[in-house]
Amino acid sequence: MSGVYELRHRVLRERLEEVAMAAGQAHDEEYVRLALCCLALLERHKVDDKGRCRRCPHVAGWWRLGSRRCSVVPVVGFYLEQPSRMVTAQG
Ligand SMILES: [Zn+2]
Fold first, then answer.
1. Cα separation of 2 and 35, whole Å?
2. CA 35 to ligand 1 centroid distance, Å
3. For residue 44, how far is its CA from the centre of ligand 1 (angstroms)?
4. Which of 20, 41, 49, 68 has the fewest CB atoms in 10 Å of its CB?
5. CA of residue 83 to ligand 1 center, whole Å
6. 28-51 b/e with 16+ CB inside 10 Å = b?
7. Where are the domains of the chain?
8. How many CB atoms lie within 10 A of CB 75?
9. pLDDT (tens digit per residue) in 31-62
10. pLDDT (tens digit, 9 = 90+) per residue, 4-34?
11. DSSP readout, 7-42?
C-alpha cells in the first residue's frame, strides 16, 4: 500500500496530466509546455512513503538522520492545490 507521500505524488502527476490535456484541447502550446515541464520535474523527484527522493540533498545532522525530504513535490503541490489568490500572493 502506498504511503501518504507516494499517494500525493501520484495525485499531483494525474493533475498535471489533466492540465496538459485540457491545455492541449485549447490548443495553447505554452500551457502544455508548462504543465509538461512540471510533470517532468515531478517524475525526476519520485518520493517514497516518507516523502524522500533521490535527487534532493541529504540533510546532515543526528536530529535529521536519514531525512531527505523532497523540496520539489511540496512546491508543485502548493501551486496545484491552493486557491489562486494564495498562489498569486506567493509570486
Ligand atoms: Zn526531490
1. 25
2. 18
3. 7
4. 49
5. 24
6. eeeebeebbebbeebeebbbeeeb
7. 4-90
8. 14
9. 888 888 888 999 999 988 888 888 888 666 55
10. 888 888 888 898 888 888 877 777 888 888 8
11. HHHHHHHHHHHHHHHHHHHTT-HHHHHHHHHHHHHH
